[in-house]
Amino acid sequence: MRADTIVDMVQVCLNGPRTAADGTAVPLTPESMADSAADAVAAGATDIHVHPKTPCGRDTLSPRVLAETLSAIRSRVRVPVGVTTGAWAEPDPAARLERIRSWTDLPDHASVNWHEPGAEEVAGLLLDLGVGVEAGIWSGTDGAERFAASPLGPRVLRVLAEVTDTGPSSAVASARGLLSELGAAHGRPVLLHGEDGGAWPVLRLAGELGLATRVGVEDVLVLPDGRPAGSNAELVTAGLVEYEAGRQGAQRRC
């Protein structure tokens, strides 16, 4: 079963802020990220989100590390590759902007968490550079309210509706609440995903609603049956099955 048969887009989130302590499934070097990306795309992923890492495994916006990471991944796949601009990688908003200005190789897109200080400036700079912006709207924050008022909203590539509620029994309700807060989302496409205990229920909801989604070790380290995931490709394979289950469940209720 391939992604293009059931969903327009399934993004693989290769690593996120996870570290070696989270297990061997987390790719931390450009080479391992490239290997993981290639396997995930072969399994059906149509887009990549990655966090470039320093040699000690910390998220970074370094132009050198970014260039090495993009080069390694693009040598193996022909799908869009995006990166994070999360404040944890560079807490100072001015320094974050300077880092991005110094990028020599540009990603296809970059996520901007709209609740973070400096989000509008970061998004504006990325757009000026020709980089697509994924507007990260986290549940439990004022991101949706800020995004609704943003003049940049109509220009973003898509909205990442990110459900931070990790409760398996409550994440779906949180997801529906977040989507309600987003409303029309400036008419931009929405990618819905959860994390940890909420990852699989929210992914199935994305299938039910026909929304783009994502899966990978950034979001969840276990398969739907609770077994540890051995790779991003394994998560993508399982994700496509779960997405289809959500889609078929919605059709049966119609």
UniProtKB/TrEMBL annotation:
One example GO MF annotation: 3-keto-5-aminohexanoate cleavage activity
A Pfam match: BKACE
Protein's recorded name: Putative Basic salivary proline-rich protein 1
Organism annotation: Streptomyces afghaniensis 772
Taxonomic lineage: Bacteria, Bacillati, Actinomycetota, Actinomycetes, Kitasatosporales
